[in-house]
Amino acid sequence: MFKAEKPTFKDKKIFYNFINMKLTGLICEEKDWLANLSNATALLGYMLDDINWVGFYLLKNNELVLGPFQGKPACTHIQMGKGVCGTAALNRKIQIVENVQEFPGHIACDSESKSEIVIPIISGNKLIGVLDIDSPILSRFDKEDGLYLEKFVGILNKYIKWEDIK
């Protein structure tokens, strides 16, 4: 059971370590990938301040397809190399965008989004998809967020059997 506590931390390291500990507790004994990704988005949606969308896009037939998310309805399909998510997936590198209006080819699913961070999910050498987080505030995300969100994705990789995704 998840205890609805939302402590505040001034130190990002302590904050993200807390989130990652909560994620581990939520998914370590659950075998269903969909339940785990759903709880992961709910956790981030609840804990992160100043965001308006968080979710997953999963690779299917060489494009990203919308997975579990929290926020307004979103784009369903994203081509590899298109927008922030497609660029992160194609390059297999975190994308931290301070102002999405300045990102070439940005896909505006929500006109209120001003900044974005996208973390590729790679298991072994296989691209699984991306974790996408949007904010209505410019420059909401930085390299430190990226570092700890990569660890968040690492926990997902530890407990989710990606091969079960059909």
Topology:
Elements: H1 12-27, H2 33-47, E1 53-60, E2 63-71, E3 77-79, H3 83-91, E4 95-97, E5 115-123, E6 126-135, H4 143-159
Antiparallel strand pairs: 1-2, 1-6, 2-3, 4-5, 5-6
Helix pairs in contact: 1-2, 1-4
Q: Would you kindly provide a brief summary of this structure?
A:
The protein is an alpha+beta fold. It contains four helices and six strands; from the N terminus they run ααβββαβββα.
Can you characterise this structure?
The protein has helices spanning 12-27, 33-47, 83-91, 143-159, and strands at 53-60, 63-71, 77-79, 95-97, 115-123, 126-135. The chain is built from 4 helices and 6 strands. Strands 3-2-1-6-5-4 form a 6-stranded antiparallel β-sheet, sandwiched between helices. The two termini are 28 Å apart. It is an alpha+beta fold. It is globular, with a radius of gyration of 15 Å.
Q: Work out the helix count.
A: 4
How far the N terminus sits from the C terminus, by CA atoms, comes to 28 Å
Query: What's the alpha carbon Rg, rounded to whole Å?
Result: 15 Å
Helicity level: 25-40%
Which structural category fits the helices and strands?
Answer: alpha+beta
List unreliable stretches of 5+ residues. none
Name the average pLDDT.
92
N-to-C series of helices and strands = HHEEEHEEEH
β content, as a range? 25-35%
Largest sheet: 6 strands, antiparallel
Shape: globular
**Adjacency order of strands in the biggest sheet:** 3-2-1-6-5-4
The number of strands is: 6
